[in-house]
Amino acid sequence: MSGENSSADGVQRVWDVVVVGAGPAGASAAYAAAVAGRRVLLLEKAELPRYKTCGGGIIGPSRDALPPGFELPFKDRVHAVTFAHNGRFTRTRRSQQMLFGLINRPEFDQQLVEHAQKAGAELRTGVTVQRVEQHGSAVPDRRTVAVVLQDGETVLARAVVGADGSASRIGAHVGVKMDQVDLGLEAEIPVPDTVAEDWKGRVLIDWGPLPGSYGWVFPKGDTLTVGVISRRGEGAATKRYLEDFIARLGLAGFEPSVSSGHLTRCRAEDSPLSRGRVLVCGDAAGLLEPWTREGISFALRSGRLAGEWAVRIAEAHDAVDTRRQALNYAFAVKAGLGVEMSVGKRLLAAFERRPGLFHAALTGFRPAWKAFRDITSGASSLGEMVRSRPLAQRTIAFLDRGHGADVSDADEDLVDS
Fold it and tell me: Residue 3 has what pLDDT?
C-alpha cells in the first residue's frame, strides 16, 4: 500500500493536494484542484457507491456549482410543493418551471467522484485517516503536511482539504466550532406504483411540532424518502414525530428499505476554516443553511473554493504566503455562503417562534412563495434577496429576534440505531 506513494528511487511521493472525504464537497475540491493540473489524491474511508442519509434535493445553486458536462441523475423533477403545519392547513403551490430535482446520493456522489478522476485526481477507497500533522518527525519540511492513515501509512501533501463530514477529524485539527446541531431521521420507503404516481413531481414540507422542526416527503420513482429534522436534545420526540408523520401519510404499512439518522452541524460565526496548509469545507467546516439545513449546495460551492485555494496554498513557499491564501479562502466563503448562513440563522430563530406565520406566508402571500421559488430554482439566493429587495429586508427585520435555548446530547445514540 505504501508503495503507491513512493517513486521509483524510493523517495516518498508528495502530492500537491490531498482531499479527505469523497462526498460532494471532497469530490468538488478534488475536481477543482485536478482540473488546474495538480497532482491530487482523494481519500475515502468507505467503498463507493455508499448510502448517505440525505433528502437528495438539488436546488439551483447546487446545479450551478457542478462540473461542466455533469448530467444530473434525477429521480424526479419537482413542480409542486404541498405545505402543512403539523399535518393541518394543507395547501399545494405549483410552478410551471421546475423548482428543484431529486437524486439518490450514492449515484450522485459516484458521478462527482468520476468527474474528479477524469480531471486527473487519483482515488483511494477503504482508507481511514487517523490525523494530520504539520510539525514533527513525519513532516520532512515546512511546506508539507503528513496525512497519517489508520494502518500507520503516511501520505504527504503540499495542501490538505478536509471534507470528511460533520464528525470530521480534519475539522478537529483545524479547530472548527459548531453552534447549532440538529438531528435528522429518515426512511427510504418503497411504495406501489399507485402511491408513487400520486407523489410524482410533488414534495411535502410539514412544519413540525418541535421548535425549528419540519418533515419532508421526496419522491424518487418507486421510493419515497421520508424524514424529519429537529434540534439535538429532542431525540425521543423527533423519533415520535417521524413515526406519527409516516402514519399520518398512510405509509406505516410499507417496510422501509433503509432507516437512518444523522447529525447536522452548523459552524459558529468565528469558527476557523483553515490551519496552516489545511483547509476544511462542506460539513467538515459546518457549512450549511441553518433554517432548512440544506447542505449539498454548500458542499459543492465550498468544495470548489477549497480546491482552488488548496492549489494556491500548495504553491506557497512560506508561512506568510500560506496564511494569505488561507485568509483569501475564508473571505471567499464568508462573502458568499456566510451571508446566506447569517440570513438563514435569523430565519430559523424566527421560525422557531412563529412557524404558523411562515406557513401562512408561503401558502397565502405571493411574494413569499415567489422568494421560495426563486431560491430553489436558482434565480436568486437568500443573500441576494436581503441585499437587493427592500421588502425582504423589512421582513427579516420584522422577524428578527434572539436565538432559542441550548440543547443536550440526549439523542446521540439515535444516529447509530
Answer: 37
User: What grid cell was written down for 95?
Assistant: 410552478
Residue labelled with grid coordinates 464537497: 25
For residue 58, report the phi and psi dihedrals to the nearest 5 degrees: -110, 100
**How far apart are the two ends of the chain, measured CA to CA in Å?**
34
Res 142: pLDDT: 87
- Where would I find the H helices in 155-295? 169-174, 193-199, 235-248
At 404, the pLDDT band (50, 70, 90 cuts) reads very low
Please tell me whether residue 214 adopts helix, strand or coil conformation: strand
**CA 328, 333, 339, 345 torsion-angle sign:** negative
Q: 12: which DSSP letter? A: B
DSSP label at residue 291: T
Cα(303)–Cα(299) distance, integer angstroms: 6
- The whole-number pLDDT of residue 402 equals 40
What are the respective helix, strand and coil percentages of the chain, to the nearest 5?
40, 25, 35
Cα 73 from chain centroid (whole Å): 18
| Average pLDDT score over the chain | 91
C-beta neighbour count of 119 within 10 angstroms? 18
* Residue 412 reports pLDDT greater than 80: no
Which of 288, 312, 270, 59 lies closest to 174 in space, CA to CA? 270
Report which DSSP code applies to 282: G
Q: Which residue has the cell 503528513?
A: 146
Cβ atoms 102, 75 nearer than 8 A: yes
Q: Is 320 exposed, middle or buried (0-12, 13-18, 19+ CB in 10 A)?
A: exposed
Cα 174 to chain centroid distance, Å, stands at 19
pTM of this prediction? 0.91
Question: CB of 378 within 8 A of CB of 61?
Answer: yes
- Residues contacting 240, CB < 8 A, separation 6+: none
